[in-house]
Design goal:
With about 700 residues, the chain is mainly beta. It is about 5% helix and about 50% strand. It has a 22-stranded antiparallel barrel. Strands 1-6-7-4-5 form a 5-stranded mixed beta sheet. The chain has a two-stranded antiparallel ribbon with strand order 2-3. The protein is globular.
Length: about 700
């Protein structure tokens, strides 16, 4: 069935390519993430939207794409499980509340797990657009917190000439070596793009843990695109391949030396506190250990615009295997294949009296199947999702008003499967938004927006009942969960002055039926693995971001960018608070106060950068059953420099954590990978990466 749908998609897209006309280049300038017409720009939209370019991402040290986003956009953070796995959070909300898109098509993998990252080639992204706030209006469920749209690089070139770029980088801490080769060819109305990327790394290190066993990874990515531009519009056919081998540490150590140990037995034969110490030669090898994860993601999609009609159809397959049997290393504990058909159709109605209107429908059909596994944390399930929306925008002099309404329906079901009894349920929701931008002048804008978001419970929240071997966690779901609904208010001030750009964005978000993880300390289902049960209650989040970017005219080469972001998350489960008091007062995974200051000297062919990145102590955490603990504050010093050595040759040097500061981020899952109640050095869990130096070389040809 999957192959048949693939063939149909290819035939349909080639039929769209068969027409003739002239070249247009508007695609890369569209604000795809908003889902409306090009006239609705970032400036006019009342919802907070941030954009980062490939050049901006290149000037930071990143091991994955989400790291690049969190370093550039205030209010965006990430839950991490080692240097290669980052799950985006927007204003304290993450997992299936942040919708990630690839070229406007929703990314579908096994994203419910802590250690399940984003299956995207970071080297192949040309621009990232981030919506902070509910975007359920145009995308439905899973956009309750916002949207991250990763737009692939489509470099333009002279007609009839092969253009290309080659990037290679090396990072000292974990020996990460990455390279990417991109080729572009433009002839008549056709544009072809090909890219092949790869990277590999051994275990990372810090001053407390030394080399952290189980954090090596290896990744290979491929992309091929063909696009035709005509007077009637454009059509793009693309395919991507993501192949990742990654290790996940389990945190087991020798109790006295604190050296990491290795699992060599299973069941009752495996004494977690008496495993052999990892040999030194395995700490710095690029070879992947027997206990690892293998993630593959395949995608083929078509985006077409004919006049005012836009369509996107995609087929995705996510294959995830997690190997956790040391005596049978070829036997996966988890073995899942997720097939997804995505569709998105929208029509921009003719403009009448300066009123822009868009109607559309989108959704997906999805099947998930276990293969030759030994652990089954979720059942095999089928899911069908559909939603329709209406959006309108009109300007009244200096005021731009926009809003709309949407209805969603999702049906999920599964038959009797191992420990899971049959289940079927439908989730429905109405969402919408209304906002305005008041252009006080060309340089001063006021924004306000109110939005209702919707999210259906995901498969692990309602269906999980077993061990996720990669996360070392037993998840317990709840079939009676209802959809989440949020009501968020945003206000903002943007000022583009001669010597400074100022941005102030404030939000308040009330959520009903909020779903979160709670650890059960007195419940041990699988020895050596924590047990988490999903809970549901009311919640409130509030906070904001302030950015002050100085560019004094008197010192034209100096740029000083400053930002601060704050999010508070309150658990409003009255019964739980009565039982546990302040331990239950706050929500889990809330980032602490974060301030960043970047001083940059920019000249025609070179730049230098000093960055101070500070995180306050986080005392507001979900403490019931020690689900979370307090996190100390820390400050990181980062340096960077780069420039154009020759006309087409760019060189970048970067050092993160220059002072080799020892720290644990409060959203680092490895912080809780600990088997002892006390340790000789007084430290618990695994710490973040230490000093890391990087060199990047980019060549255009």
């Amino acid at each position: 069935m999957f192959r048949l749908l693939t063939a149909v998609l290819i035939l349909c897209s080639m039929a769209a390519f068969a027409q003739t006309d002239s070249l247009q280049t508007a695609h890369l300038n569209e604000v795809i993430v908003t889902g409306v017409t090009r006239a609705t720009t970032v400036r006019k939209n009342p919802v907070p939207i941030s954009v980062i370019t490939k050049k901006e991402m290149s000037t930071h040290l990143n091991t994955n794409l989400i790291d690049a986003v969190t370093k550039s956009i205030p209010g965006v953070s990430a839950v991490t499980t080692g240097p290669n796995i980052s799950k985006p959070f927007i204003r304290g909300l993450g997992y299936n509340r942040v919708l990630t898109l690839y070229d406007g098509v929703r990314q579908e993998g096994q994203q419910w797990g802590d250690e399940h990252g984003i299956e995207v080639d970071q080297y192949g992204i040309g621009r990232v657009e981030v919506v902070k706030g509910p975007a359920s209006l145009t995308y439905g469920s899973d956009a309750l917190a916002g949207v991250i749209n990763m737009i692939p690089d489509l470099p333009a070139g002279e007609e009839g000439q092969l253009k290309g770029n080659f990037l290679t980088e090396y990072q000292s801490n974990n020996g990460m070596a990455g390279s990417s080769l991109g080729l572009s060819y433009h002839k008549n109305d056709w544009h072809y793009v090909f890219r092949l990327s790869g990277k590999m790394a051994h275990n990372y290190r810090n001053a407390v843990d030394g080399y952290v066993y189980g954090t090596a990874f290896r990744e290979l990515n491929g992309t091929a695109m063909a696009r035709v531009d005509k007077k009637w519009g454009y059509s793009l056919l693309a395919t991507t391949l993501y192949n990742n081998l990654q290790e996940i540490p389990d945190g087991s150590r020798d109790s006295l030396t604190r050296k990491f140990t290795i699992q060599v037995a299973e069941g009752t034969d495996d004494d977690i506190k008496n495993r052999p110490i990892v040999p030194d030669h395995l700490l710095k090898t690029y070879s992947i250990a027997d206990l690892h994860q293998h993630i593959r993601h395949y995608r083929i999609y078509n985006r077409t615009r004919i006049g005012n009609f836009l369509s996107a159809v995609a087929l995705q397959q996510s294959s995830r295997q997690e190997y956790n049997h040391p005596l049978k290393p070829q036997q996966p504990g988890l073995d899942l294949i997720l097939n997804t058909l995505n569709y998105d159709f929208r029509y921009n109605l003719p403009i009448v009296n300066n009123v822009e209107m868009t109607v559309g429908t989108n959704g997906m059909y999805q099947t998930n199947r276990s293969q030759h596994a030994t652990d089954f944390p979720i059942p095999d399930y089928n899911l069908f999702d559909i939603g329709g929306f209406y959006f309108v925008r009109k300007s009244f002099g200096p005021v731009d008003v926009s809003g709309g309404i949407r209805y969603d329906h999702r049906h999920i079901y599964w038959d009797n499967f191992r420990q899971f009894t049959a289940f079927a349920n439908s989730y429905n929701g109405i969402s919408g938004s209304l906002g305005a931008t008041y252009n006080l002048s060309e340089r001063l804008l006021l924004k306000a927006n109110i939005a209702r978001g919707y999210r259906a419970p995901n498969i692990t929240e309602i269906g999980s009942n077993g061990l996720d071997p990669g996360a070392h966690i037993v998840y317990l779901g709840n079939r009676s969960f209802r959809p989440e609904f949020s009501l968020q208010e945003d206000v903002g001030l943007l000022a583009y002055l001669k010597d400074v750009d100022l941005s102030v964005e404030l939000f308040n978000n009330n959520i009903t039926n909020y779903i979160y993880q709670a650890r059960l300390n007195d419940v041990v289902i699988v020895p050596g693995n924590a047990t988490y049960q999903y809970q549901q209650s009311k919640a409130r989040l509030y906070g904001g971001e302030i950015s002050v970017n100085l560019h004094p005219r008197a010192i034209s080469w100096l740029k000083i960018n400053n930002s601060v972001a704050y999010t508070a998350g309150l658990n409003q489960n009255a019964a739980l608070i009565r039982e546990h008091g302040d331990q239950a007062k706050y929500l889990p995974f809330i980032p602490p106060l974060h301030a960043r200051s970047e001083w940059k000297a920019v000249f025609p062919k070179m730049y230098g950068r000093i960055e101070i990145d500070g995180y306050a102590k986080q005392n507001h955490f979900y403490a019931v059953d020690h689900t979370e603990t307090a996190t100390d504050g820390y400050v990181l010093l980062n340096l960077g420099a780069g420039g154009t050595i020759a006309k087409r040759f760019d060189l970048f040097f970067q050092v993160d954590n220059v002072l080799n500061t020892v720290y644990q981020a409060n959203m680092n899952r490895l912080k809780y990978f600990e088997y002892y109640t006390a340790s000789p050095n007084g430290r618990s869990g695994i710490y973040n990466i230490g000093r890391n130096c990087s060199i990047k070389v980019s060549v255009q040809f």
